[in-house]
Amino acid sequence: MTRIIDVWAQQPNELFMRQHWLAPLLRWTDQDDLPAMPVDITLKAMDDAGVEKALLCSWFGPYGALIDNDETAAHVGAHPDRFVGVASVDLTRPVDAVRELRRAVNDLGMVALRVVPWLWNLPPDDRRYYPLLATCVELGIPFCTQIGHTGPLCPSEPGRPIPYLETVLLEFPELIVVGGHVGAPWIDEALFLAKKFPNFHIDTSAYAVHRLPPALVDYLRGSGRTRVLFGTNWPMLSAERCLQWLDDLNLDRETRDLFLGGNAARIFGV
Fold this sequence. Notes:
This protein is an alpha/beta fold. It has helices at residues 14-17, 23-28, 39-49, 69-78, 94-106, 117-120, 130-139, 161-171, 187-196, 214-221, 239-242, 253-268; strands at 5-9, 53-57, 59-61, 64-67, 83-86, 113-115, 143-146, 177-180, 200-203, 228-229. It has one domain (5-268): Alpha-Beta Barrel (TIM Barrel), CATH 3.20.20. The chain starts with a strand and ends with a helix.
């Protein structure tokens, strides 16, 4: 049976859902409001689409924690068969950020670090990332980030793959990087990086599969079958909505299994 692993999800709390930058995302996804929700709703949405596990993201921004690592770890601890934790840290405090990343991985069992560049208006080659990137290599965990334009009302430039993420991949050749949200409108740049760097991967979070750029679908069907991962960006999109037209991608069985969960299982060790 095909494993489905969602590599980008959040368990939203009230503070997270009050952020002003969510307004355009609600409009794009035809939602009037998106209140904080109990974890049971997240689990039901996963069950409705046959999702085995979701990687839950913590969120830190310039003004502090929105979903801190302990809150995420509590959800994982309550449902260890369904959730896996992804850490976040405060870029403005580099020493504390490294300590917190180590704690999140070694004590809380988190499997990756995610930093969202648009939230900080800092691209991933900014000096404030570098101690964290080196720590990811040392800990043997992936660095997850966002590539492409931003739905929120924030600058998109920090999510441009070239030159920012290319610099990171050149300077940290051992680092495993997962670029989330596809990379549009710079999809050609994202695919160039994927073809150039064997440790760079793309996840499809924030996109229903029928809206994926054709060039990415072609890559997934061919040489990129081990490099593209399924994600939702729940609660902005549900897995059921994302996968409604999966059959229209015309993926062979092996590619389908890798895309939906096999690649994530290998990269994140889940």
